[in-house]
Write a structure and sequence with these properties.
By secondary structure, the protein is α/β, with parallel strands linked by helices.
Amino acid sequence: MADRIKMTTPLVEMDGDEMTRIIWKMIKDELLLPYIDLKTEYYDLGLQHRDATDDQVTVDSANATKRLGVAVKCATITPNAQRVEEYQLKEMWKSPNGTIRALLDGTVFRAPIIAAGIDPLVPTWTKPITIARHAYGDVYKSVDMVVEAGSKAELLVTDKTGEATSELIHEFVNTSGIILGQHNTDASISSFARSCFNFALDTKQDLWFATKDTISKKYDHRFKDIFQDIFESEYEDRFQAAGIEYFYTLIDDAVARVMRSEGGYIWACKNYDGDVMSDMVATAFGSLGMMTSVLVSPSGAFEYEAAHGTVTRHYYKHLKGEETSTNSVATIFAWTGALKKRGELDELPELSAFAEALEQATIATIESGVMTGDLYALSSLAEKRKVSTEEFIQEVGKNLRLKKPFQG
């Protein structure tokens, strides 16, 4: 079609698994290809192709993201033992998200998608709260041990000269117990900080950061100090010019402030805190099906994806020919996020305007009362209608056509 929007630089397209793979094609066919001369560098991250390439395709897709700067990713399976048997895999491959995250040295930012009728459980939350989760270290790379009674546990560090320093953890005199050792690195914390500061500037939102440095006087305090040093030396003037604020507080104080707030800021959390708080925020705002997720590297690469999984139960229904009602909103917004960023970087305002129009059409569909089953169960709208997976995307397409042309 001659009037389709032209792209200059490709997106990295990472295809995925199960029901989200089905939805991926529907979105492209119904909502994207009629309007965009879509240029992508395609990588099939479906589980069977990852297995066939010994997971090299995942590494290649991450390297392509570094090179091209913007990627969009479909949800993928992280196999367990049952999946290894089901798909007859060579081995239990690692999480693609974990591999990509490590190669991009990225931070995950997740924010709710707001629509009238999908009401937050916290009444004061009128604006999205974006969780920035540090994705390295802490309990996720920890070692732990069961300790017998009568044992003494010590923390031992041997420096590069061979000199050892130790501190007593605990003497288990009359009882057995457990110990846990965890770590982080200055390099990873610094990357986390810069990703957060850059994202705050990019989205023009205040940035909150919280640890428990009053108790963890070296470990958590290190996070606080690195954030503060980088802010003062590299970002303070830019934040002032943008009219936004960097705010540090203790994690328990942050929770209390968040619950009383209206939203509209980025809340940066250490790995475990971010894991917990992102699920809390997602649930309180409605559903993982109504969450955006973007991985941002400190070098300025962006990878957009849906925050949820591959919707296996619906996929098995689809294979039987049964009707499904699967929420495609987060996957649509993964595409729109990537297209807006590509349009911004390539100075293609018509591409960004199209992506914005698609987001508005998606929200308008829900607010008109047309929605998938998960949202139907949540919605407070007086008049609403549950539709199938295909019907919802088709209804979004109808609303999108009403918004053309996209060049305001």
